[in-house]
Amino acid sequence: QVQLVESGGGSVQAGGSLRVSCVPSGLTISTYCMGWFRQAPGKEREAVATIGDIGTSNYEDSVKGRFTISKDNDKNTLYLILNSLKPEDTAVYYCALASRRYGCWVSRDDYNYWGQGTQVTVSS
Description:
four-stranded antiparallel sheet; mainly beta
């Protein structure tokens, strides 16, 4: 069974930064699309950032210039750096994996495996 485990969430004030991590078991992330999604209470889960097999990344418009997705293939770990955080960034952030190599900005339904999520709370 493939498992994804997120960590690094927490509570910060607006303007602060966090780095969340995703460590999988059961597969090597280097050859798959990986993504970060988030879900706030009462809202649908939305894609935040994705990264493909060769490192091509995509971002949701509201986080462009503030968040950075990256991966360390040697450590088999996915990261999301969240800078200049805003209260509207408050959500549970989920790591996900899709069974494709590129063209990663696709529906969440195309992502096959999900972590349990890590809470990010931004206060004003």
